[in-house]
Amino acid sequence: MKKKEIVVLCAIVLLAFALRLYKISRPIGDWHSWRQADTAAVARNFIEEGYNPFIPKYDDMSSQANGLDNPERYRFVEFPIYNSIIAVVWSQTGVSNTAARLVTVFITLASTVALYFLVRHFSGPLTATLAAFFFATLPYNVFYSSTVLPGPLMVFGLLGLYLSFVKWQDNENNWLPFLLSVIFANLAILTWPIAIFFTLPLVYLSYQKYGLNFIKKPQLWLFAFLSFIPFFAWRIWMIRFPEGIPNWHFLLNEGNIRFKGAFFRWLIAERMGKLILTAAGFALFIIGLVAKRAKKENLFYLSCLFSLIIYFVVFASGNIRHDYYQVPAVPILAIFMAKGILTLFDPKNLFINKNVAKILAIILVVLTYAFGFYEVRGYYWINKPQIIEAGQAVDKLLPKDATVIAPYNGDAAFLYQTNRYGYPITDRPLEKFIDQGTKYLVSVDVADSGIQSLVKNCKVIAKTNSYVIIEMFKECIGK
């Protein structure tokens, strides 16, 4: 690797770091705060209750996840590797939003480097530089790589997996890249099981090296066994805690949306063409998609893209509901954008003037970032800052062992701010809450008629124009 390449890569990493410092200390009340709060709560409870990754717990005691009461607050989704990393950092820094977000930032910086070396292997340093640049700077990815979500760690695991697997295939007698491949595969799959969809490129690389005989290679079967058995063990263990397993079947094809017009509109027009790449970046992606492939690239990038398409199709409603589900798409989209730029700067096979092509490339890049930041800027906003103020008041005024009702349409971000366990939704009569030991309610909807009735008849611990904290008794309810 030449000195010039090192300098350029370091500059990209430093730029990526600087961009992610934008509002890095924001509370967990921004876009997709519900998922961030659940993730952060598991890490915080590792600190406060003792570390046990096999029984992760968050703050939500309600039945909203799957219809079952969850008084023990079990949270069984992905294996809590990401939460554990945050807990280790918090053990040194104290519980801190900034520290948690910086964990994701540094993971993404590592992903940027891994993507560079992966693309460099297949396409050379120039394509690698542009791909790493787009990955590091697309506004969508800048935001999501400063959130408290496990997706960026899965992306790092996948990129590390591809890179180490390629090195192993180049020298199958070297067991170090084999072991690294197993480690990265487990990291990706355990962090977010959708990583399984993105193992298809490994099948392609194996076929490319061995032909159909790859299915007879014992080392590949050993790799597959070691990569998947921890995931299956975790899923078997989870069955013991059904109340802690959220319902996920709706993520597949809720409303039979798969292949309908809305499916294509949301994924292509709204997500790819507006949010992630914007119309300009999507044009670069298409140019890169139809551009000539280098001999070493062969079909590797297309196998990655095909994996992404399969994932979109299987988790159709999940990808329509949640825009963070497209985080795994960013590396492959960045690669094709890089190829699109290079095609425009050397348009030998395009019926277009060379200088016009270069100007068009620059305009498309500028518009990509202008439109992209316009779409993403609102994601950083705290949608309801009153929940931060109210949560701090609860943490100051109520007993540490109190459980609270902090209704926020099921979003646990409000409950997370209180630093208490409880309920982010009123999923049962208030009398039943009291019978079960929860008598405190905090609300930021102070003008609501039901809240006004409680204020009038129950004990008010604190009340401002922004929030109210109430201690409830059966005698004061329903008056």
TrEMBL record:
The chain crosses the membrane at residues 99-119, 149-166, 178-200, 220-237, 275-294, 300-320, 327-345, 357-376. It is found in: Cell membrane. It comes from the Bacteria. Signal peptide: none annotated. InterPro entries: LipidA_mod_glycosyltrf_83, RgtA/B/C-like. One of its GO terms (cellular component) is plasma membrane. Residues 80-237 form the Glycosyltransferase RgtA/B/C/D-like domain. Pfam families: PMT_2. Keywords: Cell membrane, Glycosyltransferase, Membrane, Transferase, Transmembrane, Transmembrane helix. It is a multi-pass membrane protein. Its main location: membrane. GO terms for biological process: lipopolysaccharide biosynthetic process. GO terms for molecular function: pentosyltransferase activity. The keyword Secreted does not apply. PANTHER family: MANNOSYLTRANSFERASE YKCB-RELATED, MEMBRANE PROTEIN. This is Glycosyltransferase RgtA/B/C/D-like domain-containing protein. It comes from Candidatus Curtissbacteria bacterium RIFCSPLOWO2_01_FULL_41_18. The lineage of its organism: Bacteria, Candidatus Curtissiibacteriota.
